[in-house]
Specification:
- By secondary structure, this protein is α+β, with helices and mostly antiparallel strands.
- It has 2 domains: about 45 residues; about 120 residues, Immunoglobulins (Immunoglobulin-like), CATH 2.60.40.
- The protein is built from 1 helix and 9 strands.
- The strands form 2 sheets. A 5-stranded mixed sheet has the order 1-8-7-3-5, with no helix packed on it. A 4-stranded mixed sheet has the order 4-6-2-9, with no helix packed on it.
- The longest helix is centred in the first third of the chain and has 49 residues.
- The radius of gyration is 34 Å and the shape is elongated.
Length: about 210
């Protein structure tokens, strides 16, 4: 009788041990499956993210001007919009810079200074002012002009001003980093003039080369 009880106890202990081992194995298997699922999800996410940017995309031609963005002001008639354009010559040689306004409302923009020379790594801030004076018979108007910055490269920004009975602070700050591109890319073509091509991309001369 005692022997049967001993055998039954040994069997229960064995079954309990086996059950514990199986439970641990199932937990381990679940962890492995969860880990594989997380890895697969990260892999799929990286593939999806990569679809938005193709390493083989060809950018605009090298002679195209660089877009500095669009800036908007809302002012009362008679106020002055202000923009500070800080230009940095990142090249290792001196560079001449010229600035000019373009468009039907270019006459309302004053640039000070509008031409200068920067030595290697030097920078200078140009102050641009937008005059919003209106005739006595006009109470509101919309103005727009481009500001060109030409050094080694050509850069431009678009400035729009809404003139009415309300206004908000109008003092923008724009950074311009001007530098030649000495790196030869696989997508370069014969129309890429190196190292600088800014003089050939002023308004009305895009695509022409000064050599």
């Amino acid at each position: 009788m005692k022997q049967r009880k001993s055998i039954s106890k040994d069997m229960r202990d064995t079954v309990d041990s086996m059950s514990d081992v199986m439970a641990r194995q199932m937990d381990l298997t679940g962890d492995i499956i969860d880990g594989l699922a997380d890895t697969a999800q990260r892999f799929l996410s990286s593939l999806t993210a990569g679809q938005s940017s193709n390493c083989c995309d060809i950018p605009e031609p090298c002679w195209m001007p660089k877009d500095l963005g669009e800036y908007h002001c809302k002012l009362c008639a008679g106020s002055t919009g202000i923009m500070e354009i800080r230009i940095t010559n990142t090249d290792f040689r001196p560079r001449n810079f010229t600035l000019a306004a373009a468009g039907p409302d270019a006459g309302r923009i004053t640039l000070s200074p509008n031409s200068f020379t920067l030595g290697p790594k030097e920078r200078r801030t140009v102050r641009a002012e937008f005059d919003t004076r209106l005739d006595d018979t006009v109470h509101c108007a919309d103005f727009e002009a481009l500001i060109w910055v030409v050094g080694c490269n050509s850069h431009y920004l678009r400035w729009t001003v809404e003139v009415g009975k309300a206004e908000r602070p109008c003092c923008h700050h724009v950074e311009v980093f001007d530098q030649p591109d000495y790196e030869h890319h696989w997508y370069d073509h014969f129309y890429c003039v190196r190292p600088c091509y800014g003089k050939s991309t002023r308004p009305g001369t895009a695509g022409k080369s000064d050599g």
